[in-house]
Amino acid sequence: MDRRTFLKTTLSTTGVAAAGGSVAVSPALARPNPEPIARAASVSIEAHVSGAFEMPYLKDVAEQFSRRVFEVSDGQLRIQIQDATSQGPHVGSSDKGVLGGAEASFSVGSELVAVHPAFGYFSGLPLDLGLSSQLFMTWLTAVGGQMLWDDLAGLHGFKPILIGHSGATGGGWVRRDLVSAPDLRGLKVSVSGLGGKVAEALGGAVVEMAVDQQASGLREGALAFAELPVPLTIAVSSGFGGEQVGWVHERLGGQGAMLAFNIDRTVWDKLSLADQAVIEACGRESAIVLTAEQAAHHGMVAPHLMAASGVSVSKLPSTLMQAARKVAREIVGDVAAFDMTAARVHDAYTEFQRRMAGLDEPAGLPNLVG
Question: Do residue 159 and residue 241 come from a single domain?
């Protein structure tokens, strides 16, 4: 389900509007999206999508960002997203790299950890080592995180642009028989990035499974645990949950993952300063809109949607989570020791996290666990 369809249908079916409340739809999503007129000498950038961005919700994020770039540039910049069936190997695969052989790509940050482990700091560190979406954007925009991200990405030939964050509301989806398991030994799980490394260290077998198959995989027992790069409400609307499957607030992958538009560094450097500013501004706008939508959905929609869908709330065993936190620190320590680039990013990240401890968003999000 994409964002626009979700906004139009979910609020009414869960009874939020009928209860006397009203939820404003973002102007960028509500308007009919008239096609701007392309002008002469316009720039066209071919973009591929990662495996995660084939999800309708994330594909819509990419399309909305691309449209805004086209609109704000008055038709001078066009990002052309290639159909998944024609783009070849996925972004991040060994033979195509970060951009999947194109001039740009859309990806979830955790998908790039295989390129260099330090990308884990820009995708979401595991468990309580991760930053919330608000603090993550603060680190990037105001405390030098973007410069470190640019330096790391530059070593691999691209310029990264933040366009959103999956948020901390996604949690995980678990088979009921895992709720009492002391570890993940022998169990098949779908967790990406450094969170996947944690799962492996706990004995889990990390498998690659298309997102549109994971809901049925959980119900049928082919998967024991899965984490998605989308908010809780989107997952429930996509069919996750059921008699044998519950939702857990805990994530091995931490507080969510960043969503990025990656553009070839040579292509980026050839753009005018004005064009670069347009892309960066549209990225910031996209990230702000997504963060606001996630907070609204989680507080106003999620409780009604979960009740209507019969989704139960579970908890992972405390012994498993204690072991996971210990392993996570060891894994992040290994990442910091990978090379000088990783050590530099690690020092900046942990210093920011230390100084901001206890200063996270004051309001917080509603607690669905109870």
Answer: no
